[in-house]
Amino acid sequence: MRYISTRGQAPVLSFEQAMLTGLASDGGLYVPETIPTLSADEIAGLAGKSYEEAAFIVMRPFIGDTFTDAEFKEIIAKAYAGFKHDARAPLVQLGPNHFLLELFHGPTLAFKDFAMQLIGQLFQAALSRSGKRVTIVGATSGDTGSAAIEAFKGLSNVDVFILFPHGRVSDVQRRQMTTPPEANVHALAVEGDFDDCQAALKEMFADIAFRDHVKLAAVNSINWARVLAQVVYYFTSAVSLGAPHREVSFTVPTGNFGDIFAGYIAKRMGLPIKDLVIATNQNDILHRTMVTGAYTKEGVTPSISPSMDIQVSSNFERALFDVYDREGAAIAQLMTELKSGEFKISQGAMDRLRDTFASGRASEDETSATISAMQARTGEVLCPHTAVAVKVAEEHLSDVPMVSLATAHPAKFPAAVEAACGIHPALPVHMADLFERDERFTVVANDLDGLKSLIKERLA
Ligand SMILES: Cc1ncc(COP(=O)(O)O)c(C=O)c1O
Ligand SMILES: N[C@@H](CCOP(=O)(O)O)C(=O)O
């Protein structure tokens, strides 16, 4: 299995190289050269298997010879051992033909744990056999950072620097990132928004001298391994609802487009997905793009679903690559245009995007009203990101089962949840003392050179 860049100018890599490289040297994102498929019989065969067994079958074709089957099975087993639910990703029913896929039973209470716990194990296995060390720099709007810190804290061959927007994550999210005492963890509160953090990260990758000096690695969803791990729960949930013998639809609360892109990969692999619905909050650049055909930056307004307060949605580039017939030069051109604030998508590419993705948005009031209504109707307390998905999903219900992805535990966003439905969701036992732990973080200006100097100083 070989990996190529969406901008067509970077070296072709193996799975291990793509995983450890993160962003391609031409600024693009790595994708598999070809997408492997599973037959209907193979998909049907996932029924009754454990999450770990299904994960092995779904991901194995993508990893080439990076790990033996025995090694990969052990990596998967370790990755999901700490999850608090035997099913790992259980489904609950919200109403006729509407299901909720609970992805928040991992250690940091968000769907990021599915990929990050796996990547932690993959990195450890690859680095310990090569004897190398890496510096992970991650950009987060709240959840990626805490999941990355949880997966990499205390490891001797990794330093992890997390850039988060100062004052724009929930108190729980911030404390998850700032309270781990391990010396290899560096939480940096950037005076800017998530897009500033992500732009700084990409600039660091573009600076080859810096990249080589610190041995930069990425664990954001620009890293293909992140997306791959998330493909698995589309299969497990769809199979438990009758796939491949019947179609299933998904609605995904979307920011950086990694999670829904994983659904797209599942569909390309042969999973009979009918609709893949992009659900955005008031920062609705993706929904507007689907409606107008123009990707136009308008600035970000903080919302009660802060992890989705994003306007440069990294993984959308991977989808564009496919609908532009995998022409790297066309994607490089669009990304150059985006520097001036907008690019327009060709009619042919838009038609293909609309064939695959539907979209919708939820305002702040609609998000709160959905939390309140669902709690009253079903007893299920939703986090605000999940509520965005549920609200948009309700506009797309049909006779095909709809799965809304529940991407975080409500206790990560207690203020918004309590304001909406009057219930203060409690943190689980393993985090019950979170607000008594000491915090440790550095506030930094939104200044690339300053950030790079700080990282080099800390490493020295
Ligand atoms: C709780 C939550 N929901 C949804 C999203 C959006 O996911 P993606 O960025 O993969 O589109 C995020 C951030 O990634 C998140 O943290
Ligand atoms: N919502 C994310 C933003 C970063 O997304 P990623 O999937 O690229 O890591 C977050 O919680 O940090």
UniProtKB/TrEMBL annotation:
Its cofactor is pyridoxal 5'-phosphate. Keywords: Amino-acid biosynthesis, Lyase, Pyridoxal phosphate, Threonine biosynthesis. One of its GO terms (biological process) is threonine biosynthetic process. Its EC number is 4.2.3.1. This is Threonine synthase. SUPFAM superfamilies: Tryptophan synthase beta subunit-like PLP-dependent enzymes. Belongs to the threonine synthase family. Residues 2-80 form the Threonine synthase N-terminal domain. It catalyses: O-phospho-L-homoserine + H2O = L-threonine + phosphate. One of its GO terms (molecular function) is pyridoxal phosphate binding. Residues 97-329 form the Tryptophan synthase beta chain-like PALP domain. The modification N6-(pyridoxal phosphate)lysine is found at residue 112. Pathway: Amino-acid biosynthesis; L-threonine biosynthesis; L-threonine from L-aspartate: step 5/5. It is an enzyme of class 4 (lyase).
